[in-house]
């Protein structure tokens, strides 16, 4: 059994994670699509739904349905690292979704993906759901972490 110091990371996977987070943060669905294999296995566990998809078009349509319609959208945090053949990703967004544009929401997703032949072949995510900012009582915490954060009131 190897030690933690012997764990190898992959520069290709790590680069894909940074590109994935950048494309999603910009809501550039064409760039995001170019990172996914045509037959990507995409699973996502949401508070009220489970997604189990097996192609790039459906995966991109799902991301677009979650984030694409938000008029106001800000990336609060992202993180990623590689552990052998798995890439860990995490992102937290602040947005006013199209179904509730009068109120800011925070959403966080965390997951893992695998890269095969240069493309993301499997993507597994878990989602917090959309939390109204007022209910979080975390505005001060968010501002401490992101002092430049400016919330436009609807």
Tag the structure with descriptive keywords.
154 residues; alpha+beta; seven-stranded mixed beta sheet; globular
Describe this protein's structure.
The protein is an alpha+beta fold and 154 residues long. Helix content is 31%, strand content 39%. It has 5 helices and 7 strands; from the N terminus they run H-H-E-E-H-E-E-E-E-E-H-H. The chain has helices spanning 11-26, 29-35, 56-68, 133-136, 139-145, and strands spanning 36-45, 50-53, 72-83, 86-96, 105-116, 119-127, 131-132. Strands 1, 2, 3, 4, 5, 6 and 7 form a 7-stranded mixed β-sheet that branches. Helix 1 (11-26) packs antiparallel against helix 2. It is globular, with a radius of gyration of 16 Å. The termini are far apart. The model is unreliable at 1-10 (pLDDT under 50).
Categorize the overall geometry: globular
Q: What's the N-to-C terminus distance?
A: 56 Å
**Tally of helical segments:** 5
Q: What proportion of the residues is helical, as a percent range?
A: 25-40%
Derived structural class: alpha+beta
Order of helices and strands: HHEEHEEEEEHH
Mean pLDDT: 86
Question: What is the element layout, followed by pairings?
Answer:
Elements: H1 11-26, H2 29-35, E1 36-45, E2 50-53, H3 56-68, E3 72-83, E4 86-96, E5 105-116, E6 119-127, E7 131-132, H4 133-136, H5 139-145
Parallel strand pairs: 1-6
Antiparallel strand pairs: 1-2, 3-4, 4-5, 5-6, 5-7
């Amino acid at each position: 059994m190897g030690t933690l110091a012997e764990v190898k990371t992959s520069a290709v996977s790590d680069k894909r994670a940074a590109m994935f987070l950048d494309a999603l943060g910009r809501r550039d669905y064409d760039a995001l699509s170019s990172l996914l294999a045509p037959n990507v296995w995409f699973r996502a566990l949401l508070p009220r739904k489970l997604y189990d998809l097996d192609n790039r078009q459906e995966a991109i349509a799902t991301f677009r349905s979650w984030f694409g319609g938000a008029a106001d959208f800000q990336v609060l945090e992202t993180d990623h690292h590689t552990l052998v053949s798995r890439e860990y990703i995490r992102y937290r967004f602040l947005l006013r979704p199209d179904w509730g544009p009068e109120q800011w929401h925070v959403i966080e997703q965390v997951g893992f993906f695998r890269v095969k032949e240069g493309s993301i072949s499997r993507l597994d995510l878990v989602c917090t759901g959309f939390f109204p900012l007022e209910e979080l009582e975390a505005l001060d915490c968010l501002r401490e972490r992101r002092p430049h954060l400016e919330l436009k009131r609807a």
